[in-house]
Automatic annotation (TrEMBL):
Record carries keyword Iron: yes
GO MF annotation terms: heme binding; iron ion binding; monooxygenase activity; oxidoreductase activity, acting on paired donors, with incorporation or reduction of molecular oxygen
Family: Belongs to the cytochrome P450 family.
Record Pfam families: p450 (PF00067)
Cofactor: heme
Name of the featured protein: Cytochrome P450
InterPro entries for this protein: Cyt_P450, Cyt_P450_B, Cyt_P450_sf
Amino acid sequence: MFDLAVSDAEPAAARERHGDIRGVLVPHFTGRKMQRLADRVAAMVDEQIDVVLAAGPQADLHNDFSLPLSFRILCDLVGVPDPDGFLALLLSAGEVDAEHTAAAALDELYAYLRELARRKRSTPGDDLASTLCEVIRDDADVSGLLALASFSFLVTPSNLSAGLALLAGHPGQRDRVRADPRLLDTAVEEVLRVGRVAETCVPRYAAEDIAVADVVIRAGDLVLCDHYSTGFDDLVFTDPECFDVGRRPNPHPAFSYGMSHCIGAPLARVELRAAYAALLKRMPDLRLTVPFTEIPMLGTELGDQVGGSIARLPMTW
């Protein structure tokens, strides 16, 4: 069995389990494999834009575009036949609410994924669930890895929406990308650097003494690491508060680093690039209908959720 909940108080065991999990998942998220998905992703992007345009000329592009698109892509990758039902299960299991029974929601999600694994063993397809079933015998282990990959993807819709808000809120930068599509790659990296949508201070415990400048963090000390803050370090970034779609170099840590580097980073980049390219082409005058600082966020109107998120993104074109 893969133990997906090893405590940070057991650093050696946590590193071993973490390595085991990455060893199984990483081969399915390589940049080369994700680029082969690019045409499928582009087609899904255009289909979702068609839906938005048909209902326009105003829309909530988070719930009408970013969320459904991201979860269609996730479900296509995983091999889930019911994107809407799986999205509801995943969002329910990720909620943080005093009246919500998280354990029951998680049980329902894992039961769904175990049944998915059982079906993939008898009728495999070209998807992550089928591939994991080939190398892992226990359906519970497969469901745990699929849940881990899926929860990690919860942040992607907010990154996508944050980028739309940034481009719409900086029309000069938006027009630079429209005029020169070669800037799409650097624009995606800049969105990842500055597109913070929630607090990111995840608690960690130091496994050994660490010296940072003139401060020594002792083994066992609690550390709250905000990895987004390093994207605004003026020792690394010139004018870090400026949103610059052509910024080079851009060594942001949005996908973390080393053994914690986000496995799904290549897929996230493919999705963001395809979405921005298509939207800027088909909705060239995309703009917010509320001030940038008044974009509704989860926790203010819809309840809290693991990972935090934009609640709505009212836009027109």
